[in-house]
Amino acid sequence: MPDSDRDRPDLGALVVRLGRALIAAERPALAAHDVSMWGYAVLSALADEPMRTQAALARAIGADKTRIIGTLDELQERALIEREPDPEDRRVRLLRLTPAGRQLYVSVRADIRLAEERLLSELTLADKRVFLRVLQRLSPEPD
Amino acid sequence: MPDSDRDRPDLGALVVRLGRALIAAERPALAAHDVSMWGYAVLSALADEPMRTQAALARAIGADKTRIIGTLDELQERALIEREPDPEDRRVRLLRLTPAGRQLYVSVRADIRLAEERLLSELTLADKRVFLRVLQRLSPEPD
DNA sequence: TATTGTTATACTCTATAACTATA
DNA sequence: TATAGTTATAGAGTATAACAATA
Q1: In angstroms, how far is C16 C1' from A55 CA?
Q2: Rounded-to-integer distance, Cα B136 and Cα B16, Å
Q3: Is the CB of residue B91 inside 7 Å of nucleic acid strand D?
Q4: What tens digit of pLDDT does each residue of A49-105 get?
């Protein structure tokens, strides 16, 4: 590594600071659609694939199963998700987006991508590609 | 951008997940030296330059001024920092590392860099360079 | 009156454990 | 008895406001 490596801030500090900046930059997009960060995480996970249990959903978004209940209540109340007992095992809840939920997700995500692009716009295309690829490589999958 | 860009997770999710992984990877290094994350942040900021007020220090590490007081108490108790009223304005506290504080900082930082290098070791040298450069570019300076 | 540091308070997040309903 | 979901409780982290000392 070049000599400047010794003087750089710690990687953790850089990443955490960038994370805070990203959350701040995305907040207006979420607020505009009246969706919380956890609410968006749920919509995003269910957009990928319906889930058979709330625990699996919680794991997928890195949350505790007790933590998403209020979020699910609200999303269901607003008819953005469906949440019904599995007839074959009535302990578990089948979770999926409603059409309205998918539509909202697409809108919010578009706004979030715009905010991200603004932040990334100062990079060259080559740097941006490498950065995103490395980020996906280093960012751990949920267990 | 290539077509795969549309399917990538949101940038915020990637960065936040990486941040959590980094904090987890660095925790053992901090614990080995009995230093909290905020404690390390303080040592790190003061290693760069002494500070003339606690508020400036708090700003430098992205914390509230009320939040670092307990941390400063403990570091001072352990004789890792000096914290004395400025004779010219006795409201403010002059802050700097003691030799012991600097020595501890160097040790902890070495361990933290080792943990970071383990995470980065799967990257090519070229990717690593670009990644660190972009990260420093995007990560906002404290106000 | 304004500013630095401190303390007190309340509020949000999160983690743990108890509880219910099903199996 | 074991598991999915829920609720209740307590703990940590954070933000706000009040306070003391100094200017």
Answers
A1: 16
A2: 16
A3: yes
A4: 999 999 999 999 999 999 999 999 999 999 999 999 999 999 999 999 999 999 999
Cα gap B21→B13, rounded to integer Å: 12
A142 close to A51: Cβ distance less than 8 angstroms = no
Residue B123's nearest CA partner among A77, A136, A85, A74 is A136
Cα–Cα distance, B15 to A120 (Å, whole number): 13
Please give the model's pTM, rounded to 2 decimal places. 0.91
CA separation for the pair B76, B37 (Å, rounded): 16
- Return the structure tokens found at B133: 């450069």
- Chain A residues within an 8 Å CB radius of B14: 135-136, 139
**Site from B124, B125, B135, B141 to mutate, A interface, most A CB atoms within 10 angstroms:** B135
Q: List the single residue in A16, A127, A131 with the smallest CB-CB distance to B19.
A: A16
| C-alpha closest to that of A47 among B7, B5, B2 | B7
SS3 A44: helix
Residues in A closer than 8 angstroms to B35, CB to CB, are none
